[in-house]
Design goal:
Blueprint lengths: L22 E4 L2 E4 L11 H18 L5 H12 L3 E2 L3 E3 L2 E7 L7 E5 L7 E4 L10 E8 L5 E8 L5 E7 L5 E7 L16 E4 L10 E5 L7 E6 L5 E7 L7 E6 L6 H5 L9 E4 L6 E7 L2 E6 L7 E6 L6 E5 L6 E8 L3 E7 L9 E5 L8 E6 L10 E9 L6 E9 L10 E5 L13 H9 L3 E5 L9 H5 L7 H16 L8 E6 L1 H12 L6 E5 L18 H4 L5 H10 L8 H4 L9 E7 L8 H16 L10 E6 L10 H19 L6
Parallel strand pairs: 28-29, 28-30, 30-31, 31-32, 32-33
Antiparallel strand pairs: 1-2, 3-5, 4-5, 5-6, 6-7, 8-9, 9-10, 10-11, 12-13, 14-15, 15-16, 16-17, 18-19, 19-20, 20-21, 22-23, 24-25, 26-27, 27-29
Protein name: Prolyl oligopeptidase family protein
Organism: Citrus sinensis
Length: 664
């Protein structure tokens, strides 16, 4: 459905070499991989392919007449102060703040919530183009030191630095994970190790606390309890929401970890939980009595307690709720606990930070700081939640619909439907400047479908969209799309779908399965080659969500929906109902080391070949394009201008393809 509105000439796609000799054997099935060469980001042929694709995409985007207006309006709305909630450590308070258009938010420090705030660390001074981002900060208990992790160009690899808070002196201590240009490599990440670093020493002198070479895919994270007595280590094997819990009593080291250096062995951790059967997260401890948030026998999570001296005697503190998901638990004010629940999962609130004094008998909430976006009037819009029957008929899929008030349900509106559906991640309401502009100036309807695979209703909801049941995600999203059309919000040629990462996979699978249903598709950093995902960087951790192609049963699941392996000519599938793929934009980034760019590049080459260049006078007139961002990664840490430019490109393309006109 849809057409390349207003662009008359046919597109001249770059011809990508096909190597027909590359054929893999999966359990007796011969699977060709003619674009295997696109997996090498350093090859000149790959760089040439990327350059030609970028030129083609730019030639189309330059004809998307509302793109510049979108950029102008989005920039204007972005240009307002934004604050993160402050946190206290020692006798100081810390928070991140962006004046509006700064590339990265700045870390501030103050002696009290009413005192003057001073800049502690400004990442914008660390690069000319704003592509160095702070990904994590940690302040010492006495508020004397700040440890901070820096990411370059969006890479997941970070460099950890140390600053003295009083005088802002950056110490010589530097912890690096990678020696090469982090972000552009594709090697698999294996053999994780846990180290302890002494201040004022070289990284080479760090103490190895734990490793497990017999399980190369295990990852380890350690933290010391607030009382300083225990080192707690979480062990994970993949992205599944389960972990082991080991601990070590640091008071058992008479000379501390410095003395342990002489032993040349690993710390003798005690294995409190030594199986991957649930998620366990320490909330707090009183000496040897530990409180956990867990999904053990509670897919919506509960609070439990155990004394390390009696490790087989667990007690329930807060039972699992009947419907709502316990998302987090925090200890506060010495003897209190704050629980946060997710229910049925205020798109229209730019941001409010509340303050609450827990020491009062009846705690009251008051507004501490509220973000205001000049020119935005929330009263113009309406948020509605519906529950859509999925394909199986027994499952109701929640969907938020945001639009201008009192719109006519006559199918005339451009519509943007967003989805994710994976890894137990909940897609909750949040304010979006760019999508607000779409609703106001393009008359668009914006929707989020909380499909299965996410965490909106706990672990059962997640499992119903994973592994052998992954097709449920696509069925749910397709059902949500059909509802928007049948209810009169939009029509196929005016419906655009969008997703990122696992959501990019969602988009790729849906346009393969129902190309007739959509007018436009935006797939960001998507997982597109389900048979080779595990061979690159951290892709092997996706086994728990998708399955392993090296196992026959799981290969059978994957090959049925893998976007790369299911591109078909729709006009040949149903000659009586001629159709084509929607206008498609595949987005990736050169420093994405979580879902490496080869996924999008191989799918782009495949779609252009199968649908366009392999035929004379192909019925596929809707464009199939790729947008490859430079000095960017999977999404985190992007400078403000890159976010604005991407939004203008994506939604300018969407507007052109859906025939949406500008409303002043």
């Amino acid at each position: 459905m849809g057409s390349l509105t207003g662009i008359d000439e046919s597109l001249q796609y770059p011809v990508a070499r096909r190597d027909e000799s590359i054929v893999d054997d999966y359990h007796g099935f011969k699977i060709p991989d003619p674009y295997r060469w696109l997996e090498d980001p350093d090859a000149e042929e790959v760089k040439d392919f990327v350059q030609k694709q970028a030129e083609l995409t730019d030639s189309v985007l330059n004809k998307c007449d509302v793109r510049d207006r979108l950029r102008e309006k989005i920039t204007k709305l972005f240009d307002s102060p934004q604050y993160d909630a402050p946190f206290k450590q020692g006798n100081k308070y810390f928070y991140f703040h962006n004046t509006g258009l700064q590339p990265q938010s700045v870390l501030y420090v103050q002696d009290s919530l009413d005192a003057e705030a001073k800049v502690l660390l400004d990442p914008n001074t660390l690069s000319e183009d704003g592509t160095v981002a702070i990904t994590t900060v940690s302040v010492s208990e006495d508020a004397k030191y700040l440890a901070y992790a820096l990411s370059n160009s969006g890479s997941d690899w970070v460099t950890i630095k140390l600053m003295r808070i009083e005088d802002h002196i950056v110490e010589a201590d530097t912890l690096d994970g990678k020696e090469v240009d982090a972000g552009i490599e594709t090697d698999s990440n294996l053999y994780h190790e846990l180290y302890y670093h002494f201040l004022g020493t070289e990284q080479s002198e760090d103490i190895l606390c734990w490793k497990d070479p017999e399980h190369p895919k295990y990852t380890f994270s350690g933290h010391v309890t607030e009382d300083g007595q225990y080192l707690v280590m979480y062990i994970r094997e993949n992205f599944d929401q389960v972990n082991k819990v080991y601990y070590y009593d640091l008071s058992a080291l008479p000379e501390g970890l410095e003395g342990f250096r002489k032993s040349n062995g690993l710390l003798p951790f005690v294995k409190l939980i030594d199986r991957f059967d649930a998620q366990y997260e320490v909330v707090a401890n009183d000496d040897s009595v530990f409180t956990f948030r867990t999904s053990k026998d509670a897919p919506k999570y509960k609070i439990v307690r155990v004394d390390l001296r009696e490790p087989n005697n667990w007690s329930e503190v807060v039972p699992e709720a009947e419907r709502d998901v316990l998302e987090s638990a925090s200890a506060a004010n010495f003897n209190q606990m704050i629980l946060s629940y997710l229910s049925d999962v205020n798109f229209l609130t730019p941001g409010i930070i509340y303050q609450c004094n827990l020491k009062t008998e009846t705690p009251e909430m008051k507004i501490f700081r509220e973000t205001s976006v000049p020119g935005f009037d929330r009263s113009e819009f309406h948020v509605h939640q519906v529950f859509v029957p999925s394909k199986d008929g027994s499952t109701k899929i929640p969907m938020f619909i945001v639009a201008k008030k009192n719109i006519k349900l006559d199918g005339s509106h451009p519509c943007l439907l967003y989805g994710y559906g994976g890894f137990n991640a909940s897609i909750t309401p949040s304010f979006s400047v760019s999508r607000t502009v779409l609703m106001r100036h393009l008359g668009a309807v914006f929707c989020i479908a909380n499909i299965r695979g996410g965490g909106e209703y706990g672990e059962e909801w997640h499992k119903d969209g994973a592994l052998a049941k992954k097709q449920n995600c696509f069925d749910d999203f397709i059902s949500a799309s059909e509802y928007l059309i049948s209810a009169g919000y939009t029509q196929s040629r005016k419906l655009c779908i969008e997703g990122e990462s696992n959501g990019g996979l969602l988009i790729g699978a849906c346009i393969n399965q129902r190309p007739d249903l959509f007018g436009c598709a935006l797939a960001h950093v998507g997982v597109m080659d389900m048979l080779r995902l595990h061979k690159f960087t951290i892709g092997h951790a996706g086994f728990s969500e998708y399955g392993c192609p090296e196992k026959k049963e799981e290969f059978d699941w994957l090959i049925k929906y893998s976007p790369l392996h299911n591109v078909r000519r729709p006009w040949e599938q149903d000659p009586d109902k001629p159709s084509q793929y929607p206008s498609t934009l595949l987005l990736t980034a050169d420093h994405d080391d979580r879902v490496v760019p080869l996924h999008s590049l191989k799918l782009l080459a495949t779609m252009q070949y199968v649908l366009c260049t392999s035929l004379e006078n192909s019925p596929q007139t809707n464009p199939i394009l790729g947008r490859i961002e430079c000095k960017a990664g999977h999404g985190a840490g992007r400078p403000t201008q890159k976010m604005i430019d991407e939004a203008a490109d994506c939604y300018g393309f969407m507007a052109k393809m859906l025939g949406a006109s500008w409303i002043e």
